[in-house]
Each structure stands twice: as C-alpha cells, then as structure tokens.
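Good morning C.,

I know you're traveling, so I'll keep this short. The sequence:
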Amino acid sequence: MLGDYDYGDGRKEKDKLYMPFFDRHTTFPLKSHGVWWLSQFRRWGMVKEAPDYKGIVDRVHRADVYREVAKEMGLETPREDMKKETFWDGVVFDPADPEKYAKSFPIHSMA
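The tokens, ready to paste straight into the viewer:
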C-alpha cells in the first residue's frame, strides 16, 4: 500500500505524505507553477527577455481541460489557478510579478 513502510527491522511506518499520484491535487496544472518555471528560465538566462508568462502558461497549463475531466470523474479541483508559494527558505514567489522574483536573487544569468 502506498505510504506503508516496513524497514525490515521491526519498524513500520505509515507516511501520510507519501509520493502521491493524484491525491492532494498534486497533478493539477497550477498556472502559478508554470509562471515559476518560466521565471527560472529567465533567471538562468535560458530566455534573454521576459517571456509572455501569461500567454505561454495559458497554452500549456490547461486547468480548464483538467477540470472538465475531473468533473466527469467526480473529483474536486482547486478553485484558483494561481497562488503565491512560500518555499522552504522563506522566499515567497508571487506569480503576479515573476520578473521581480527572477531578478531578486544575487546569483543569476541575466544581463
């Protein structure tokens, strides 16, 4: 069973945060995640100018298609497509201003 670990030395553990494939909306195509990826491409010089964040993400992260299929399957989906993320180091990514985020790091490959 996913999340059940038997270490073979008598220890057994149930991990409530096991590697999910569908639970907890892990596969939902949040547009904010796409914007973050593009901000990283920008930060590391993989794109020379600010990309059309919204245009690209709207074409790739098709939450509308996902929601349609999820509805047919009787599954709930997140209400929002975009959300701020706070990372492990306390840095906050705001998808409303990806250029500011990309430029906020002292280490980057942007001119």
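Safe travels,
E.
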